[in-house]
Amino acid sequence: MNKTALKNLSLKRLAGIALQSWENEASWEAISELQMLGSPDTLAMAQRFATSKNAHKRALAMYIASQLRRKRYSKQWGAVSDEYAVKETHALLLAGLKDPITNVVTAAISGFGHRPHPLALPALLAFATHPDADIRFKVAFALAAYRDDASVEALLVLATDPDDATRDWATFALGSIHEADTVEIRERLWLNLGDSDDSVSGEALAGLASRKDERVIAVLLERLDGNCMVFELDAAEMMASPLLLERLNALKDAVVRDEDSSSYWHNRLDSAIAACSGSNK
Q: Do you know which InterPro entries this protein is assigned to (predicted)?
């Protein structure tokens, strides 16, 4: 079912699709539509589902609460949306953290990544060492929205997690979302630069480059080749160092731009060259 068709369905029908196709593409599309239908009726349905004996209904209530918004039209911006029923949805999410079923808890935890609340932080920190990798991943996602020292400390630990996805998101949160710049953060990013997972390594590189860590230049001189990812190109742009210009120009000359090549990759290369040559100033 396409998104246009979903827009014409009732709340009951959308909830039915979300529950019957649980966690597949159709389910997520129905949940996304429900999240944009902020109204007393949608809130009442989420509140009712939150106390259901059916764990999937309780999890659905958490997903709705996490991003419930009301659409409106703005003369300046056109179609926009605003958070709806923040106080009420926070109450649902806080209750969801105490649910006995893991899927409900993970949905509630992820909700605080979209709609943070200080009362949730102690529970999120406690879940950071949970044996379930999905819970730890959701905690890493949620803690990106918190700026407390305690959340940074937890992310430093999660950035060493055995689960690749958790380690990746924690590294991204420390490197690119959090603005704190401490010795501990830089050293964790430096260590994760050597991670076996390319995404973790790339996020660490981006985090160091955003902090203008000069050690990144030597790393980029090694990595800037035909196989490099956008991470390296973005890091080169952030460093904006003339020391990288020769390597970047050589890369541009060596890589043929054809129909199968990534135009985005080449655009990022052009931006990196412009930054390192000083033409962005």
A: ARM-like, ARM-type_fold
**Is 169 within a domain?**
no
In this prediction the pTM is 0.90
Closest among 38, 46, 39 to 15, alpha carbons compared? 46
Give the span between the Cα atoms of 252 and 239, in whole angstroms: 18
How many structural domains compose the chain?
1
Structure tokens at 51: 């106390």
Q: What is the pLDDT of residue 263?
A: 86
- Does residue 253 fall inside a structural domain? no
Q: Which domain holds residue 67?
A: 1-115
pLDDT in tens, 157-181: 999 999 999 999 999 999 999 999 9
Calculate the dihedral angle through the C-alpha atoms of 89, 95, 98, 99, rounding to the nearest 10 degrees. -80
Indicate whether 143 belongs to any domain: no
Amino acid in the structure at residue 37: L
CATH code, 80: 1.25.10.10
